[in-house]
Design a protein that fits this description.
This protein is an alpha+beta fold and 340 residues long. The chain contains 8 helices and 9 strands.
Amino acid sequence: MNSRFTYRHGLTIVELLVVIAIIGLLVAMLLPAVQAVREAARKMWCSNNLKQMGLALHSYHDSHLVLPFGVGPDNDGVISSLGTLDDRRYSAQSMILPFLELATVYDRINFDVAPFHPFVNAATGDASVIAAQGANVVNGEAAKVHIPVFLCPSDLDRLDSIWSHNNYRTCNGSTWSGRRGNGMFGQVSSVRFAHVTDGLSQTAMVSERVKGTSNKAVFDDLSDLYDLAGIWTEASFRNACEHLTATTAAAYNQDIESGQTWLEGNMNWTRYNHVLPPNKISCKNGFTWDGVIMNASSRHNSGVNVLLGDGSVRFVADTVDGDLWRGLGTISGSDPSPGF
């Protein structure tokens, strides 16, 4: 009697390893494409955040016939101070909240006192503030409100500040002055669109800067602000900062709280300038009010998004010509080339 046998052929170990290798290769080929698509979506989201801010700034201008200041008044003289309780250094971001459909947050802010009263600064290292989670700060509840339109989805968030953070900065101008500047948003400025003789489509209103690390042991050239205190001219200071490298910058003390709050118009939290092109190392000369190079920066590939005065958003490469970039930061007298 004949018997029939059916044999089932399984995968050998070699064949299995080949299949796994092919799958691994396909994943390795596909992953960069997936990451690129995700970053493209985040970059578009970031651009949309800036467009919303542009609409809010235009609405503010329509309502008040002037743009908000970049930072409110203080009692500083020729030399900057650490601040007093008489300061009102509020940011443009805080002023436009009603035009971002955030009137309830705006109404919580007492603009008649210092932003973080009874403290003269953000007090993020104060044990009592941390223990009370900001309840002992007059504007603490408002400052803790998470505002997505102020945050770029491509950035990391390593800050340990209890206050809600910020990525988008108003343009102070193209000089190292941290005060009035020659841009749209100086200290106690009152710029109207009619004052922008360079043309709204050729003038920067807002760009982005990555958030800090809250860790002195971590060096991040896109977020850190290095202290090059000394006797400088603006030109020599710019030259010194421009030639810093990741290695040489590490020799200096650095500020690590970039973007720790949207409430106050501090140069390291809510404003920037066009002294050097995007994604360069940033520097300060002592106090940031007396001399600062606060560059735009982002986690996007090779550039930053910029909101222009006409409400449009452009992606500007970090290889942009320095003179053109500086011209983009001013409201008059230094026009960028058309179609920059």
